[in-house]
Design brief:
It is a single chain. The protein has 21 helices and 4 strands. By secondary structure, it is mainly α. It has 3 domains: about 230 residues, Clc chloride channel (Orthogonal Bundle); about 200 residues, Clc chloride channel (Orthogonal Bundle), CATH 1.10.3080.10; about 80 residues, Alpha-Beta Plaits (2-Layer Sandwich). The chain has a 4-stranded antiparallel sheet with strand order 1-4-2-3, with helices on both faces. The radius of gyration is 24 Å and the shape is globular.
């Protein structure tokens, strides 16, 4: 009988077309799960909006928690109807209790879910998919539906990855194949959450694997497209942000994009530091219930007097683009949304920061445009452009996946005329955040999670599972022109294949590597992260001559 290592090497060489087929299956399943999640969230948020409108005494047309200006404060109406206030407090307490139970029983359902997926792909985390899926759906619905400033996109990525893992378990795949199927599921989850199939596939490469692989790309694309078909069937073809962008920004105004990119990169660095600082403060509270109670209690004053800061804030973007806020109101909205999003996420509730940070970026872009128009004579219809520039720049500065950001915003808006401008802002924001020493937010969150719990569900048996890693040898990298034995991989790791163009070499210690080679490394799952760091340093870092 062949060992698992031999099976892994044999199967990975023939995995491309089976992975595409399996990716399609995972995409459909993920589309069903995530569409269900989206549906119940829409229902919960619609109910919350209706309750706040009712509490406001049937004020003039408004969007409830979306915060269309002009909605009267529900505070006075609540004081006049104490029974309604008591009922809402009971519902809020129920949402808090349900969220706390989910986090207590399944700790890995807390937070965004993207760090957990990235950790499992690195061999550092084990998630029981049969527990995470229901806990994430229930906990996320209660937390986001209650009004916490969280998004559904991170949870959708985790749900998709867990669907992929469950599918892998049912068809009895090996550890390497399981990780590929999890990646397909994660891509499908993002695709269904945003109706953005290309962004889902690119995120799988740029945000999770951080290394180009044709197999991962094809499998992720198949899963993303299949998932998007389901989303189109359920939600239709309307873009997530239905903005009326009239034309591209003229080149004469591109200097304003450079300034905006620098500001957003700096703002993104501040966001990461605020998340870390707030999490440190929350750690002073000994119980999970106490930490979760903070954002839930803040819902009371926010719901009564400033409901615009509640929820994911999807419709805030279009309202800013429709010029429904003056400069001072935009500044207040930005501050409130920024603070409450950080307080909601840092408490550990099941929900993501993907959408809140896009909304904050959109508000920042609108604020920047409104301030610039006080000085320059720029047509007002360009505010739509600057809203999406703010979104992509803030995303690139925090998540540090600029290509994903540009493609995601383009697909979400359904307009390609601003592709160049989006790329400029994303690049400048990325460089600014990098020069300021900012750590990508999901890497920061994963490192913090592993510091608090180094095992994260991993056992010695799981660590001994054999997996395959792939890495390109970059031209001018340290290993370009050097012998394989100079790489010094961790003990128990073995290079089993060197692909040079169409030719596959049988590697030995004296094999000389060349730029463009593709290595396949066999190692224990527990050594994956360490081996990948060495591969990145030796094969994907340019040599200083």
């Amino acid at each position: 009988m062949k060992s698992k290592a031999e099976q892994a090497i044999e199967r990975i060489s023939e995995i491309r077309y089976p992975l595409i087929l399996q990716g399609c299956c995972i995409g459909v399943l993920t589309g069903i799960v995530v569409s269900f999640f989206r549906r119940i969230l829409i229902a919960a948020e619609s109910l919350r909006d209706s309750v706040l409108r009712e509490a406001a005494g049937g004020a003039a047309e408004s969007a409830g928690t979306s915060g269309v200006p002009g909605m009267q404060s529900p505070g006075t109406a609540m004081m006049q109807h104490p029974r309604m206030a008591v009922l809402l407090l009971i519902v809020l307490a129920g949402c808090f209790l349900g969220t706390w139970l989910c986090v207590r029983l399944v700790p890995l359902c807390a937070g965004s879910g993207i760090p957990q997926v990235a950790g499992e792909l690195k061999g550092r985390v084990f998630q029981p998919w049969w527990k995470v899926i229901p806990a994430k759906i229930i906990g996320g619905t209660l937390a986001i539906g209650a009004g916490l400033s969280l998004g559904r996109e991170g949870p959708s990525i985790q749900l998709g990855a867990m669907v992929g893992k469950g599918f892998s378990s049912l068809i009895d795949r090996l550890a390497t194949e399981e990780k590929l199927l999890m990646t397909c599921g994660a891509a499908a989850g993002l695709s269904c959450a945003f109706s953005a199939p290309l962004a889902g596939a690119v995120f799988a490469l740029e945000g999770l694997h951080k290394n180009f692989s044709t197999d991962v790309l094809l499998g992720s694309m198949a899963a993303s497209i299949a998932s998007d078909f389901v989303a189109f069937y359920v939600f239709g073809l309307t873009p997530v942000f239905d903005l009326s962008i009239r034309q591209a920004l003229p080149l004469s105004l591109y200097w304003t994009l450079a300034v905006l990119g620098v500001l957003l990169g700096f703002f993104g660095m501040i966001y990461g530091k605020c998340i870390a600082f707030t999490q440190d403060l929350y750690d002073l509270i000994p119980s999970k219930a106490g930490r979760l109670a903070v954002p839930f209690l803040l819902l009371i004053p926010l719901g009564l007097w400033y409901p615009m800061a509640m929820g994911g804030g999807y419709r805030l973007v279009t309202q800013v683009a429709d010029e429904k806020f003056v400069l001072s109101a935009l500044a207040l909205l930005l501050m409130m949304k920024f603070c409450y999003s950080i307080l909601s996420f840092s408490a550990g509730a099941p929900g993501g920061i993907f959408m809140p940070l896009l909304v904050i970026g959109g508000i920042a872009g609108g604020l920047y445009f409104t301030a610039v128009t006080q000085i320059l004579d720029i047509p007002q219809y360009y505010i739509d452009n600057f809203v999406i520039y703010g979104m992509v720049g803030y995303f690139a500065g925090i998540v540090r996946s600029p290509v994903t950001g540009v493609i995601l915003i383009t697909e979400m808006v359904g307009d390609f005329t601003n592709f160049l401008a989006l790329s400029v802002v994303a690049l400048i924001a990325y460089i600014t955040a990098d020069l300021l020493g900012s750590v990508p937010i999901y890497q920061q969150l994963l490192e913090r999670m592993l510091r608090k719990d180094p095992d994260c569900g991993m056992t010695d048996q799981l660590r001994r599972n054999k997996v395959l890693l792939e890495s390109d040898v970059y031209i001018s990298s340290i290993m370009d022109g050097r012998r394989l034995k100079e790489m010094k991989l961790p003990r128990g790791c073995l290079v089993v294949s060197v692909l040079r163009g169409p030719e596959e070499l049988v590697p030995g210690g004296d094999t000389e590597l060349k730029g463009g080679d593709r290595l396949t490394v066999l190692c224990n799952q527990g050594r994956m992260d360490e081996a990948d760091r060495i591969l990145k340093k030796m094969c994907r870092t340019e040599r200083i001559r």
